[in-house]
C-alpha cells in the first residue's frame, strides 16, 4: 500500500468534552500522522457547503446546526491506505454498532454527535482537504 492522505474533523461534541488530544492519539496510534491541523468555528455557510451532498436529506438542517454549535478540529492525516485506516479507527457511524476500541465506540454520544468525520474515498479526501487547507498548510 502507498502512503496517502485523508481528511478528518473532530466534531463539536468531542471538542466540548476536551477530547481532541485523546482522539488524535487514537488516530496516531492507528498509524496515521497529522500533517495539518486547525481548530476553527465553522460558519453556517461553510457547513452548508461542506455537507452539501446531504442537502436533500432530512437530517441536513440538524447536521449543519450541530457542526456550527462549537469549535471543530480539521485535520489532514497521512499514512498507509489513510482513508481506510481512518475509517477503521473511527468505527461505524452509529456508535452502538461500532467495534470496541474505535473512536466512536469510546467517545461518541449518539449517531448524531458521533465525535468524528472522515473522508469516505481518496477523491473525497482531496476535495475535503482542499476545502479547508492550502498546499502550504500541509507540512508533512
Automatic annotation (TrEMBL):
- What EC identifiers does the entry list? 2.7.4.6
Task: Quote the catalytic activity from the record.
Answer: a 2'-deoxyribonucleoside 5'-diphosphate + ATP = a 2'-deoxyribonucleoside 5'-triphosphate + ADP; a ribonucleoside 5'-diphosphate + ATP = a ribonucleoside 5'-triphosphate + ADP
Q: What family does this belong to?
A: Belongs to the NDK family.
Source organism of this protein record: Croceicoccus esteveae
Assembly notes: Homotetramer.
Localization per Swiss-Prot or TrEMBL: Cytoplasm
State what protein this is by name.
Nucleoside diphosphate kinase
Q: Which gene encodes it?
A: ndk
- What HAMAP family does the record point to? NDP_kinase (MF_00451)
Q: Where is the Nucleoside diphosphate kinase-like domain?
A: 3-140
Q: Which residues hold ATP? A: 11, 59, 87, 93, 104, 114
**Listed SMART domains:** NDK
